[in-house]
Amino acid sequence: MKRHLVGIGGVGMSALAVTLINLGDEVTGADRTLDTKNIRFLESLGIPCRPDDGSGVDGTVDEVIVSTAIESDNPALAAARDFGIPVTHRAVALARALSDRRLVAVVGTCGKSTVTAMLGHILAECGMDPLCVNGANVPGWEGAVRFGRGAFAVAEVDESDKSLVAFHPYAAIVTNSSSDHYSKDEMDRVFDEFTAGLEGPVVDGRRKDYGLADVPMPGRHNRANAALALAMARALGCDAARAQAALATFRGVERRLERYGARVYDDYAHNPEKLRAMWEALAAAHPGGGLCVVWRPHGYAPLRKMMHDFADAFNEIVRERDKLLLLPVYDAGGTADRSVSSDDLAALLKPGVAIQVADHEAAYSWIRQRTGNFAAFAVCGARDPALPALAARIAKAVDGAAATA
Hints:
Elements: E1 2-6, H1 11-22, E2 26-31, H2 37-44, E3 49-51, E4 63-66, H3 75-83, E5 87-89, H4 90-97, E6 102-107, H5 112-125, E7 131-133, E8 145-146, E9 152-156, E10 171-174, H6 184-195, E11 202-204, H7 220-235, H8 240-247, E12 258-260, E13 264-267, H9 272-285, E14 291-295, H10 300-317, E15 323-326, H11 342-346, E16 354-356, H12 360-368, E17 376-380, H13 387-404
Parallel strand pairs: 1-2, 1-4, 2-3, 4-5, 6-9, 6-10, 7-9, 10-11, 13-17, 14-15, 14-17, 15-16
Antiparallel strand pairs: 7-8, 12-13
Helix pairs in contact: 1-4, 5-7, 5-8, 7-8, 9-10, 12-13
């Protein structure tokens, strides 16, 4: 089957693409931005990637696959209608691809990618050879995919658009629940319905404290994530000592407190809870000094919905010796309501908490002049594909300044 993925550069769609080609499908794709790490990786696997103008959809395509982020007027959808090609949601396509495995679904507001990677690593080290599909790239995997041939699959399942209902897992981990895309009450209802009546084990971090487990990643939240992964691994039959030993060789997850150089980090934190966890982890890892964090709101709708929650979080976690560099909202194009901006958030912050910067270059320039003023630096946010490059550039400046001091 020839399947065309729209928005293939996104980590979720690229992970699906890698899964499909490993299962024997022919895959093509399109994206608005082609000069990215994910696109280059997909092309290295032989997946043709074209501009998002509908030109990749013709009579040879058997199926067009889209995510919720793809708008109804996308040219690929118009081409699919013209050629009579069926259009399938990403979640449905992934559920179908995993249907012959015992699926362990990882859901929750925060920590899904890390727990998915941890569990996949543990099961692999315990000889179970799982197929894993994550929402973030993992060192040593094919991007966000570990293609194993064992009986189990592990997949991060998204609650943001409630597409998790497409999956019918054997077992599940619920990491936690908080207000993000929906209210906490609504999230709890969705997660309860999703996990009701599963054949296999359910590890639910909302309902039980599984404690903390040692893992080579900073932050109490990562020790809690590790404990959830260990609990599921043991429930699936892994030896407890072997599973614990596996965590010692876990290499982390891309953009989850990923370190660049000696004291610069890149993180996906994009909601108030994740920002708190990141800030607290870095403060604990670099005691006695301040933090400088560059943050970009990842969309207009999330900023509008969580405006006051963001303000409360930053007003609480940014200490006198810290500084938040606030970038403009990331604009992915389309028909978004742009009636809010970073200016509105800045107006709610206490004096001295934040400095607004116009773009990546302005953030870099500000930091380059103050590399000795802070114990650690971080770049964080979702969607903007250029954030990791900014972290790498800052790390080079920080390490260079330290070497000449």
